[in-house]
Specification:
alpha/beta, GKRP_SIS_2, SIS_dom, 10 strands, 3 domains, five-stranded parallel beta sheet, 15 helices, enzyme binding, carbohydrate binding, 13% strand, three-stranded parallel beta sheet, Helicase, Ruva Protein, domain 3, Rossmann fold, SIS domain-containing protein, globular
Amino acid sequence: MRRHIKYFSCLQAPFVAGQLDVCMNNLDKFIPVLVGFNPINMARPDKIDGWHSTFLQVAERMQRLEKLHKAYVINPAVGPEGIAGSSRMKGGSVTKILLETIFLAAHKALANNTDITDGCLLDLLRCYEKAHSITYSHTEMIAAVVKQAGASLRQNGHIYYIGWKSLGVMGIIDASECVPTFGADFSHVRGFINNGFKEMANNDGDMSTQGPEFAISHEDFLKIVLPTIHTNDIIVFIFTLDEGEVSEIEKMAHQIKVSTDNVVAISHGTVWQYMPKELKKLFSIIISVIWPGTLSNYEGCYIQMFQRELSTKWILNAISTGAHVLKGKVYHNYMIDLKVSNSKLFGRALYIIQMFTGQTRPKCFERLLQAIYETDELSEKIKNVEISKHIQHAATMNK
């Protein structure tokens, strides 16, 4: 029996290339599937340290096997990211849509003992299209929160997401992406979820004792962060109105309001649900996303949960990205304050230096190493080590 393994990638990750190579070498066990959002010919051609292939060569081999129906490349062209290099926005969102569409359709077909039809896939995709329409009908309110979040970061404040259930996971993911994307400290944007790691059903259990970055529960927020809250911070509550936890939300909001008035909400409800008046009074801005009773004939509760997650992801991406733009982390649509923590970001840093200086690639490579090693004089030893060693050194640097 063959195991089906899917790898989703930006067509640059060395780890994914290696795993795909293993799958292609063992087609009796695996059916490799690669998902990306750039044309195959744009996959990274650079040599991967300590390996025999480039990602481009792996992707081209996948294409050849696809013609033989032994592998699959799903490569929708969704256009460039709004902020150059921020693959978490369009790429991340389309990945979520594709994954959920694939597996929801598969589960439906299995449950009904039928084939997956074009109509089923189209129905699911139209649900996400509707989610997009509903979400971006709130652009004015989203823009208001972006402006407030940007003001917080410019004044050395913080953005805190207080979420419930899977929407809390969306907050933690968005916050975690700000570190490599914008060179932010982990404390600048943080996410917290009710019941912490227990709510996330983490395989390794509660990891909150492993360091401050792992403190993700509401209790951690109240104990560690709340005493440090000041007026420059912004707190974003993320919840649905059908969770039966309105009293808990109201209690937390009251506690936070003592320290700052910058408390906003992203709430999800149906046409027959309303936010209590007393709760409304606690938020300076409310992005109230109202959903129809059901948007799909198939497992309505699941598809609506996924839609709410995606809607929340879009809103949070806009908040954190817009706030960092307002702080000055983006120049000419390029993220200029990134951390060189992997090969993709090393290449991006090199490209940015070359683009803005007009110098040759070797010269820019030298300037990048000078920045990484904080020296004007590079030894021959440093110049000749593998790029992976430079990345390891850069990843440990503090600003």
